Amino acid sequence: xxxxxxxxxxxxxxxxxxxxxxxxxxxxxxxxxxxxxxxxxxxxxxxxxxxxxxxxxxxxxxxxxxxxxxxxxxxxxxxxxxxxxxxxxxxxxxxxxxxxxxxxxxxxxxxxxxxxxxxxxxxxxxxxxxxxxxxxxxxxxxxxxxxxxxxxxxxxxxxxxxxxxxxxxxxxxxxxxxxxxxxxxxxxxxxxxxxxxxxxxxxxxxxxxxxxxxxxxxxxxxxxxxxxxxxxxxxxxxxxxxxxxxxxxxxxxxxxxx
Amino acid sequence: xxxxxxxxxxxxxxxxxxxxxxxxxxxxxxxxxxxxxxxxxxxxxxxxxxxxxxxxxxxxxxxxxxxxxxxxxxxxxxxxxxxxxxxxxxxxxxxxxxxxxxxxxxxxxxxxxxxxxxxxxxxxxxxxxxxxxxxxxxxxxxxxxxxxxxxxxxxxxxxxxxxxxxxxxxxxxxxxxxxxxxxxxxxxxxxxxxxxxxxxxxxxxxxxxxxxxxxxxxxxxxxxxxxxxxxxxxxxxxxxxxxxxxxxxxxxxxxxxxxxxxxxxxxxxxxxxxxxxxxxxxxxxxxxxxxxxxxxxxxxxxxxxxxxxxxxxxxxxxxxxxxxxxxxxxxxxxxxxxxxxxxxxxxxxxxxxxxxxxxxxxxxxxxxxxxxxxxxxxxxxx
Amino acid sequence: xxxxxxxxxxxxxxxxxxxxxxxxxxxxxxxxxxxxxxxxxxxxxxxxxxxxxxxxxxxxxxxxxxxxxxxxxxxxxxxxxxxxxxxxxxxxxxxxxxxxxxxxxxxxxxxxxxxxxxxxxxxxxxxxxxxxxxxxxxxxxxxxxxxxxxxxxxxxxxxxxxxxxxxxxxxxxxxxxxxxxxxxxxxxxxxxxxxxxxxxxxxxxxxxxxxxxxxxxxxxxxxxxxxxxxxxxxxxxxxxxxxxxxxxxxxxxxxxxxxxxxxxxxxxxxxxxxxxxxxxxxxxxxxxxxxxxxxxxxxxxxxx
Amino acid sequence: xxxxxxxxxxxxxxxxxxxxxxxxxxxxxxxxxxxxxxxxxxxxxxxxxxxxxxxxxxxxxxxxxxxxxxxxxxxxxxxxxxxxxxxxxxxxxxxxxxxxxxxxxxxxxxxxxxxxxxxxxxxxxxxxxxxxxxxxxxxxxxxxxxxxxxxxxxxxxxxxxxxxxxxxxxxxxxxxxxxxxxxxxxxxxxxxxxxxxxxxxxxxxxxxxxxxxxxxxxxxxxxxxxxxxxxxxxxxxx
Amino acid sequence: xxxxxxxxxxxxxxxxxxxxxxxxxxxxxxxxxxxxxxxxxxxxxxxxxxxxxxxxxxxxxxxxxxxxxxxxxxxxxxxxxxxxxxxxxxxxxxxxxxxxxxxxxxxxxxxxxxxxxxxxxxxxxxxxxxxxxxxxxxxxxxxxxxxxxxxxxxxxxxxxxxxxxxxxxxxxxxxxxxxxxxxxxxxxxxxxxxxxxxxxxxxxxxxxxxxxxxxxxxxxxxxxxxxxxxxxxxxxxxxxxxxxxxxxxxxxxxxxxxxxxxxxxxxxxxxxxxxxxxxxxxxxxxxxxxxxxxxxxxxxxxxxxxxxxxxxxxxxxxxxxxxxxxxx
Lengths: 258, 382, 304, 238, 328
Fold this sequence. Notes:
The complex is a heteropentamer of chains A (258), B (382), C (304), D (238) and E (328).
Chain B: H1 2-33, E1 40-46, H2 53-72, E2 81-87, H3 92-104, E3 109-112, H4 116-129, E4 133-135, H5 142-146, E5 151-153, H6 158-171, E6 176-181, H7 185-200, E7 204-210, H8 219-228, E8 232-235, H9 239-251, E9 257-260, H10 267-273, E10 281-284, H11 295-305, H12 313-330, H13 335-343, E11 348-350, E12 353-355, E13 369-374, E14 377-380
Parallel strand pairs in B: 1-2, 1-3, 3-4, 4-5, 6-7, 6-8, 8-9, 9-10
Antiparallel strand pairs in B: 10-13, 11-12, 13-14
Helix pairs in contact in B: 2-12, 3-4, 6-7, 9-10, 12-13
Chain C: H1 3-35, H2 42-64, H3 68-94, H4 102-124, E1 129-130, E2 139-142, E3 145-148, H5 149-171, H6 173-183, H7 185-190, H8 195-221, E4 223-224, H9 228-243, H10 248-267, H11 272-290
Antiparallel strand pairs in C: 1-4, 2-3
Helix pairs in contact in C: 1-5, 1-8, 1-9, 1-10, 2-3, 2-4, 2-8, 2-9, 3-8, 5-6, 5-8, 6-8, 9-10, 10-11
Chain E: H1 27-47, H2 50-75, H3 84-101, H4 105-127, H5 132-152, E1 169-170, E2 173-174, H6 178-200, H7 203-213, H8 215-220, H9 225-251, H10 261-274, H11 279-295, H12 303-317
Antiparallel strand pairs in E: 1-2
């Protein structure tokens, strides 16, 4: 069953067509990837999915319901969480507070509860804390929970973003270039983590990546786009041998530069 | 870790320093409130800062001059007067602070009151403390209702001014008039009273307008007024904006009567408006320029402060003199006695004329006069 | 006066008032466009311009008289002096704040505004000063619409200055660099543009335009005061936002529009002088709600 | 290192808390095309931005034409003939094409010279001349790239730093751009090219360096790199 | 965010001995200092004259206003240049209801809260999507609109405003002396601190901070930024409204002149000077706001000038405000 279905998606900015008639779907419980060279429109696709851009045409169906052009927070509440390509942490806040932001949409205490510090409110706070700590534990940085986010290493900051996304209790997790800026060891850990999220937490994953090696290792279904259009789809092997993909990544072999 | 620790300690120190600074400031306040004991302390409440500072300082000078003269003449009941100024900045909040400051300093009486808005909330404070208060300039009719019995207004009230104004308009044969105020308590009060009185007389107020303080361009308003063709235009607010309005009215070709209220009684109006001001009428409380009795005061003031006295100098001066007179008559600095003596005033004649009070503690006889601008000077309109 | 005449006269009034607003709004918009700062002190620089013009005129008038020549000379002097003051303020107060939180720099601008107005207040004892010039009331009567020669000269001067600015910004290298900095500072550095120098130039021009408006207002209305910059600063700010802050033609348009709104607002039944400010602020708010970038403002595409 | 027009020694740069460059050394000889390769976030753009003075390095030295420019402000470096065409083109959208090009010659006072250079740019990019009075925002990606390169040529560069000129361009346009780069090189401009499109870049270049997390991991002449299996692997996986 | 709140020192600080201020670092000793300060505040009316009380009452009043604006500016990061409008709404609600309709003072408070919420929603609803600079002008315009409405309407007493507002009484005891009001405003200020503190350290408080730091990331985490901003606006409005009620009762006379743009700026200064978002900082800001001009009254008309220069210097050297940042 497809958890996410994108049909005929189109997006243009100031006359520039960024995404053209894009179709793809993500099966429930799978790890899927969206790849393509720089500037191919991958992040724009993510921004359409999560509501930050309003697509000009097409439909996005998530968990059986249309979410096209819905506000981002509503989409998150429906169960789609994302990370950002350039880290978007709340830099001056602690790691735990960062992760707690994810729980916001799953909790309800308001101003009155906060002022009176009612029993329900205190219980909820405790629950939030406990769950967020478990998220931090899951990504392996529980020890850092009281540090200010901006003081963490780059790799750990990425993990905070992950934990934060997990705290929204998503059905589908969108990862925007999770391997960017990571070294070899960190990439290996990343692959592991992605698999654990799917296997242990039952969360479907769609990632955008540049690093083909990583993508090939984790994904079950790969969609390749270039110039906002789908150019190939399939498993790692299919995609790797697709001449159009090779061309997009390495440049055309046969062309001679004068 | 050590670095963190040091930073924290530094923070700690800063915070402690800051707390001490606040403590110091509060302590400073205490010192401010305590003033050295004097023989007879009289409070002056006027705006010495803010937009009305010029007039306020002028009044302060006049009161101080009166006090100096009294002291030179042997003082009051053998005591020397020491003045203490509370700045109301023409702002209600600052006014209450100023009044509390004076009351806390245990003044025997207060003279002053320029802006009606700022004076209004202080009446309660002086009333609670039972401090005799001679209001020299502020004259909004609202002051009458808020008066707790201890305050006396020696400036004629809005009612008196309106009577003077209406009399002039009638005499000049006006049927349709335009009234313009500036959106503050004083000028709106005057404008409303004029409007009500004029319509009561069965005549027409064709325009009742407001000018926002600080705006310079009144051309739109001028066009509107001109289109209503009034026989007279009455500006009830202050001179600075009034001058601009007069200039622009004349520039746009309005040729009928223009009159301004006592807030506009200033040579500055003539200076700014230039020849446009020729023939403009002004209703005025007594000012030194044409008061025969004020000659000495005028000379003294100029000598002492090296400047010309402004519109309210004479009344402020009278206010101080009246207060001294009342204390002399009361024979003591007992507040009730002074208040009683003030109320019984009949024989006091200041440079602005004789003073006695109605049962509402306002001046019994209007001292409003009509001035006219001639050759760049205010003259008595005969 | 017939309704038609009244409306025509109000149109003229609105355009005259609007050209003052536009002149001051230009400085707001230029500074905002280039460093994204709402320079609250701009209205006060208008006021300082009037005061320096006053000083210059009182010094110059014995030499060259206080008619048009004298006014023109003191206007130029005042524009240069205030322009330099603007650059000084930018260097001392704004330059170090460019990396600070946005709110802090706004507060800094408020502080500068208070320093300027209260400084002049302390200096002049809060007095209104009267310009000695009297430019007369002669004018042209076009039907029932009356416009004085002075008004015509002032509007002409404002138009001239605005045209000059437009040509400067579009025809000279420095003007082009100014616009380019507003778009992308890094790219400008890579073109060999000394960004800080151009920013200083922008401040110079923006504030000297305000100063020119200040001295024109001083001679036209006849009096100056330490507080005179507040209301016009507020209005010019509004005008700049209506036109689309950051856009130079927008500021001109916004200024004229606000002038017209106010003068017609005065005339419209149930609005009148009492409600005209509510009317223009109300329109401002509505405009922003439905077109948040102002009339000529550009929408920016944000990148994730 | 005689003949080197640009020398980088042990360059380290921090981007906030991120240690973006961890000691990079390389050099570019006059007349060469040198390419920097690497994945996203490897530090290629940071290297260029540090060289052109947009960001300050933490340590290390940059020498251009033998002069130390490590602490020189960007606008002074431009005057020496070192021009950086940034990633994403950074053309001045909202201004016309002509204005964009004119700004490229901001440092020039000579009107005559400016006209000559303009003619030269229009000769290489006729498409720009056709539309010179149009708003540059409405150009297509390829045309924007041409404008960016054209703008840099208005400065009469000795050394051109090009950051991903092929990004987001259709293949035929990539070829077009590469031809232009070669042509500039033949006209005597030394080129330091950052590319993601490794094949294309290595075809053009004389020498190449591969960056990974702020360090140079592979270096060599383009021929060798082209045949290096590990490069292909790095880009396409196993 | 500042955890080192005067009210609740965290345990983190307790563990660092040494230094000349060593004893201040223990929670117990800091509590002692605080208690002494609290006692001083409580017994001030017994040892001081009316002037000091008047000024200190004003301090507590501004503490409440500044804390209210701090929720909007400091917590949610929205620039509001028309905060005096909310303060006006409260003051006029009390003024009109007590003087025209004879409503008991205490009953006007819920009414004021209601109208403040309405005002907050009316202005915040459509405008909170705007960029922050535009929000500044919109709030400024709103502030002016409220002032002009108050000036023009008959029911608000026009330009002269309302006089003779009834003094409140509590269980038959009339609150009329300045010392009474001192305690009323002290309690209000403490309440404002308490509510601010509780809000700051709650789910809502965190949400404000998320939105302030990065709107997009917050939205991606499922936070409805418009609703969250509106929440801040409305709560800030309630603070202002309630402060306005008591202001009206204390002054017994209110007029539009109190609710000008300058008043809004003054309150904003209090928030920023001390350090926005930090409760102790805001309190210090309010102190500075009221005490500085009083203490330097002798400077006469140039004291505002000096105040402004001090403000500029503080901004240049400590753009985050006087109160130190938390370091971690």
